Amino acid sequence: MFITYTDENNASKVRKAANKRKISYQGELLNVMPAYKQNQPDSNLKMPLKKLQSRKRQKKSSKVNSDKSLLPTINILDNDCLIKIFSYLPIKNRMRIERVCKRWQTVNQQAWSDIKELEIPEAINLLRPFPMKIETKERAVKKLLLRCGRFLNKLKFKTNARLYRLDIMSIIGEHCSNLQCLTLSLNNHSKFDLKALCLNLHKLERLELSGLNQKNFQDAFLRRLSTNTMKELSLRIEERGYHLLTDCRIQITWAGATGIKNMKNLWKLELYGFSFKADKLKLIVWNESITHLSLENCSFEKCINLVANFRGLKYLNLSSVVAVNNDFLIKLAENCTELEELNIEYCSDVTNNGINAVFKLKKLTTLIINELHEVTDTVLRKFIALKVLHCRNCNFVGDSGAIKLLENAPYLEEINLSGTSISTRFLDAAYNVAISRANAIPLKVFVSHSIKLNWTTPPCISESVLIVEGENDIIQYLFEDMTRLSDFFDFYNNDDDDDDDDDEDEDEDDDDDDDDEDSN
């Protein structure tokens, strides 16, 4: 206890009495000693108020400084600085830093704005280099698109057989609203809801879908695509063995044709392996904005002539279209006067009469007529404005017509004569023409590999003047066709093996994925 004496003498008497053990309290002797000034209860009352408050502030400040010293230096930065730092991390580390603390998890949601292009599954493989289960890959795809989907302008997504079971179309349609270019390579085992893809893609300009078949594709979704922004559309049927099974073709419906017709700014249309009827094709022809048209391997039910009504075409690819004949080419030359590039390879009904009609296309610079076995070199020598000519395996094309073409076509840059009847005489003429060109345009020539081997190469030949490439002979092409045929029959037998391989993938720790899902 503290006792304050106002008189120094009284305090001295009490201290002496205590030393003589004469002072007791409740039957116990007391010791009396002077108290230090800082321990006296009334010492603070004598201290000025400002000085007391200053001491409190100093204690509080020292406590805050000691707390800050315990934190990592990076946490002193504001959110904008952290976002900038996180944006330099690879995708793998961006996913991991969300587990550091709640603040980093929140800030990291805004650190994906620099990712404008994404390619899957390459991006997923960067997350974990070792094999992953299908379920783990699905979660990784979903998490990645949830974080960076709203910032993406370009997305390329490739699926393998029976790889993804989640509804990827709904995820893309819901979370990737700023996409301008979308490339999807589907698989023939999955059924995708393409209508869900069009929910929020109001800025989409280019769409490429490949691996389509009757199970996973319905063209009605084309009506849901933006009619004002769409500029490029590419739809491709599953290729494997397709040229053998003609019933694999998908017929364009009224809904699909109407969707294409309504795309006001569509300039590029590529359809591979589809089937057309006259009434559906007429709807597409109404779209006058199309200048680039590819209908490779498509079939037409007595309506091929309608293609010639695309009067604004500059590029046309009708490769492997059986319906193409001389009459069609005559009508095409009359209507499509702006045509610059034409591909009619594997159109076996075309003869010299059809090629003569094509000569009327004054703006034509590229002509692809591979595998046209009825065409001779007498008609080719007239195409003096060509820059590119491919006539591979045209048996009746020989030295005389090909050399005449070289001499009369000063702007010819590339010519493919592999599998034809030319000899080394043509290569000698090509060398003489190339070195004497006044415009210094280099000439690139493709010939059969055997012709190149037998040709005596001139000394000091420069690639800036003449480039000679050797291609496999027709026997090699037949061998490659047989190989593709064998692959086709083995394809479906290997599907079950693919599933077994997936089951044998290494198990991995999924705690990281679960933590991320819980935090979201």
Folded structure, characterized:
By secondary structure, the chain is an alpha/beta fold. Among the domains are: 8-76, no CATH class; 387-471. 37% of the residues lie in helices and 14% in strands. The protein has 21 helices and 19 strands. Strands 3-4-5-6-7-9-11-13-14-15-16-17-18-19 form a 14-stranded parallel sheet. A three-stranded parallel sheet has the order 8-10-12. Strands 1-2 form a two-stranded antiparallel sheet. Strand 17 (414-416), helix 17 and strand 18 (443-448) form a beta-alpha-beta unit. It starts with 7 loop residues before the first helix and ends with a helix. The model is unreliable at 494-514 and 516-520 (pLDDT under 50).
Give the termini distance in whole angstroms. 60 Å
The proportion of residues in beta strands is: 5-15%
Tell me roughly what share of residues is in helical segments: 25-40%
Low-confidence stretches: 494-514, 516-520
The oligomeric status of these chains comes to single chain
Shape: elongated
Return Rg in Å: 40 Å
Number of H- or I-type helical stretches: 21
Strand order of the largest sheet: 3-4-5-6-7-9-11-13-14-15-16-17-18-19
Q: Which structural class should the secondary elements be placed in?
A: alpha/beta
Number of strands: 19
GO biological process, one term: SCF-dependent proteasomal ubiquitin-dependent protein catabolic process
Protein name: F-box domain-containing protein
Keywords: Ubl conjugation pathway
